[in-house]
Write a structure and sequence with these properties.
By secondary structure, the protein is α+β, with helices and mostly antiparallel strands. Helix content is about 15%, strand content about 25%. About 5% of the residues are buried.
């Protein structure tokens, strides 16, 4: 699958699941303004290893994108066995898979 077709599919799918953004949503690369800046007042001034707690972790293959956060879901993409593209919706709090869609294709 060409990268143009892949990105067209991702854009089309994201339109199907469109919902109003929340202050903490990161619906595109590097956040709402694409600058990597968090303007939410509840975000701490500084972070340390002691203040961060890993809540969940899942294995992912290589992919084109970073995670997208919207509401209570995290969307991720990956390539499996160099022949299948996958997009997954995960529960933001638990990391459990809500749904998965896959199709033939690979990173090129």
């Amino acid at each position: 699958m060409s990268s143009r077709l892949f990105f067209s599919l991702v854009i089309a799918l994201s339109g199907l699941f469109n919902s109003p953004l929340h202050a903490t949503d990161w619906s595109q690369w590097r956040g709402p303004k694409r600058d990597g800046f968090v303007s939410d007042s509840s975000f701490p001034e500084s972070l340390s290893a002691q203040s961060l707690t890993q809540v969940w972790k899942i294995p992912l293959g290589p992919g084109y994108s970073g995670p997208i956060i919207s509401g209570d879901r995290v969307f991720v993409t990956e390539t499996i066995d160099e022949k299948t593209e996958v997009v997954r919706a995960l529960n933001r709090a638990t990391g459990k898979q809500i749904w998965k869609q896959e199709w033939p294709g690979a990173l090129s």
